[in-house]
């Protein structure tokens, strides 16, 4: 029998508060306030430090680019925070809240965004956000191996249909 299903709206994304930001506890608490105001639910949160190999693996798609070594050095420079965030359209909304990759461009084109306010340079841009459902699942499972993304999505679909 045909069973109509509503489109899945509530999404998960993986956010990172990068090491430059986490060196400043006041900034971290300001960010969490912005996260709350933007109606994201923080599903899981974890503070960690990366090895060089972990950073190289996560950013494997950028291997060979001129900024790769700098990026790996930055991401291994100190503790940072990984967040599973949930909201309708979480992927697009989180990337919207953090803003364009390059903080100087963000300051010109999207001055209210977090990278515009907190980002330091093209590399040290303070935030990460997944760019698709597939990437979100892969990235969440890197930081939260015990979190079952498929199960969460199945439950969300059932409860909204
Ligand atoms: P995104 O983080 O906005 O998705 P990506 O292109 O995936 O941007 O780049 C990953 C990370 O690499 C950025 O967040 C930033 O830290 C760094 N990066 C990207 N482009 C540049 C650049 O042109 N110069 C220096 N660092 C860069
Ligand atoms: Mg990216």
From TrEMBL:
InterPro entries per the UniProt record, alphabetical: NDK-like_dom, NDK-like_dom_sf, Nucleoside_diP_kinase
Molecular-function GO term, any one: ATP binding
Positions annotated as active site in the UniProt record: 128 (pros-phosphohistidine intermediate)
GO biological process: CTP biosynthetic process; GTP biosynthetic process; UTP biosynthetic process
Domain named Nucleoside diphosphate kinase-like: residues: 10-151
Superkingdom of origin: Eukaryota
Pfam families documented for this protein: NDK
The keyword Kinase is assigned to this record: yes
Keyword entries, A-Z: ATP-binding, Kinase, Nucleotide-binding, Transferase
Protein name: Nucleoside diphosphate kinase
Binding sites annotated in the UniProt record for ATP: 18, 67, 95, 101, 115, 125
SMART domains: NDK
